[in-house]
Task: inverse folding
């Protein structure tokens, strides 16, 4: 169950990052939206980070910190990488793919 909490924590981190990216994506010179529309992505990010913190705390009850943190961060990095790939919003170069592979290898080695 601890690994499920880590996956959920990483997913919440991805959701928060995507919300923050969306919040900063409004074009320069655009007419300002209502205050509620401007605040929504930020509030969604805060909520996602808070929920992710709770899931991470649950995972730490059963896992060592030296395993849980790198694994949760790797899940978040992989999730953001996949978001960028699927959304087409970001370019995925060979160097980025190599970096993702190295992160995965590092997490594998830490877990042994």
Result:
């Amino acid at each position: 169950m601890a690994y499920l909490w880590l996956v959920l924590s990483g997913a919440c981190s991805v959701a928060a990052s995507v919300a923050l990216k969306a919040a900063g994506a409004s074009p320069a010179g655009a007419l300002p939206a209502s205050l509620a529309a401007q605040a929504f992505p930020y509030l969604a990010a805060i909520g996602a980070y808070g929920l992710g913190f709770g899931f991470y705390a649950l995972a730490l009850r059963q896992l060592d910190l030296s395993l849980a943190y790198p694994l949760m961060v790797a899940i978040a990095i992989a999730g953001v990488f996949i978001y960028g790939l699927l959304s087409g919003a970001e370019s995925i170069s060979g160097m980025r793919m190599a970096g993702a592979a190295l992160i995965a290898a590092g997490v594998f080695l830490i877990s042994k």
